[in-house]
Design a protein that fits this description.
The chain contains 17 helices and two strands. It is mostly helical. It has a two-stranded antiparallel sheet. Helix 8 runs antiparallel to helix 9.
Length: 364
Amino acid sequence: MSVGRGRGRGFAEVRETTLRRPGQSFAPKFSSLVNLIENLTLDETSSKVDDIAQAINDSIKNNSLKEVIEDLHNQALEDSVFGTKLAIACSDTKVYSINDCNLRLILLQTLQKDFEERGEIKKRSVFQFRNAVTLLGEVYMRLKINGKLLDILAGPLLQYLELLLEASEEEDIALVSSMILMNGQKIFETSPSELEDFTIRARGVLINRNLSARSRGALLFIIDLTSAHFALPEKLKEFYQNEIENLNINNINGKGNAESDKPKNKPIQPTADNNVGNVTRTPKQSKVPGFGAHEKSTPSAANERPVMPRAIRGAGAVDSGKDKNAKKSPRGKKDKLTDEQIWSSKQNTGSKVWGHDDRFDKDY
């Protein structure tokens, strides 16, 4: 799997394997199965999935299916690329239907456990937390039940991304942009109001945090993309394509998911060389009118007062406007909030609880 590189790597390329810290080790119990998934390639997906399904069936002869999934899950927390390949394998009917679809049920229960323990995971290892987000996002993009994506995963994924925004490290912002590119359109169709709230938070981070140029570009792109209901105008597409190298703009609207049942026709990780002509499409009408309409629009260039050069004046010259503004705070200082003020309120974890759903017992 090749990834394009340039002087300024695109912010959508975030799923890179981070080196493990010295002294850390992880030895998977089912190493042969892990190796099969690690060797999953673009041109051999179909045959490799058959081998993976057979290896899982062999493994559960002497072990429980839960042990097998737990081992694969632990490997995914250590390696985000493995997590992507695991999601691809588990989205294939030959794999998720193993043991009367119990494999799919156990996988989703494992993801739910990660979500419920997200605070502890983040505290224990930011690296593993990011990989847990990646795994959930990849499963949400690919796994279907009766031909439909699992909309119940939209809320948990969005709450994951809010935690990444709160941290605002460059790697966190990059992962947020990648997940919005992959799944934002589906979240918009399922939870438009929640996505709007998320975008407003992204604006706050962009204004009030000390971010790198790469992170600022990523957030601005997310804001424009969601505000346009995932149908960017051609000029904006061209702008971001020129300004941000290796931007995986072809992945907007989850284009990688459209053919998820035909993995051999698409790369596991898209590159910037793919055609972007299929990005713009007419968005579905939202049940929430005026997405982002409550925000104030910036004044147009036509209405702005032209800047006049400052005249050279003597010592006795009086600035008529000086006294009027003398007591005002410097521009941008009065209303600016600190990071602590913005994030001091406790996150409402009950806003979109990934609770028990009877459909799980019925459909899985």
